[in-house]
Amino acid sequence: MRASFSFLIAFVLLCILPAARGVETNQTLTVHGRLSFYNGNPSCRIWIVGTKHLLGVRESGDEVADMPKQLRDLMADDREIFADFVVESLTPYRQGEMQMVRVVSASKIVVTENDKIILRKDKL
User: Fold this and answer.
1) Cα dihedral angle (112, 80, 66, 44), rounded to 10 degrees?
2) What are phi and psi of 22, to 5 degrees?
3) Where does the pLDDT of residue 56 fall: very low under 50, low under 70, confident under 90, or very high at 90 and above?
4) Stronger pLDDT, 25 or 11, i.e. the higher one
5) Do the Cβ atoms of 44 and 60 come closer than 8 Å?
6) Which of 23, 40, 42, 114 has CB 3.0 to 4.6 Å from 56, enough for a Cys bridge?
7) Where are the domains of the chain?
8) Taking the chain, what is the end-to-end CA distance rounded to the nearest angstrom?
9) pTM higher than 0.85 for the full model?
10) pLDDT recorded at residue 3
11) Are residues 46 and 33 in contact, defined by beta-carbon separation less than 8 angstroms?
12) How many CB atoms lie within 10 A of CB 75?
């Protein structure tokens, strides 16, 4: 009886603890953020508006960001892209660390250049 009770407690803890840590890998979520270039690796990052959290957009071996080509084509050094991004987490969330993601899609897109709006799109 005691062994089965201990097993039950261990099983419940293993089920609850991952959910308490936040978004795990391979989950998709929608964030309202600003996509722009940064110094360092990865160079493409999404700042989630209203937070201090940055999402790093994974790059392939040839340093191409893992996002739709239409979105990549909108990027430039002096541009910022605000949108609702659907991202897939590639690393688990850890407080104080950048979480790596891939961008699946974007909607409600606003592109700014030198603080002026140059383009609005509903979706890619």
Assistant:
1) 160
2) 110, -155
3) very high
4) 25
5) no
6) 42
7) 24-123
8) 58
9) no
10) 52
11) yes
12) 17
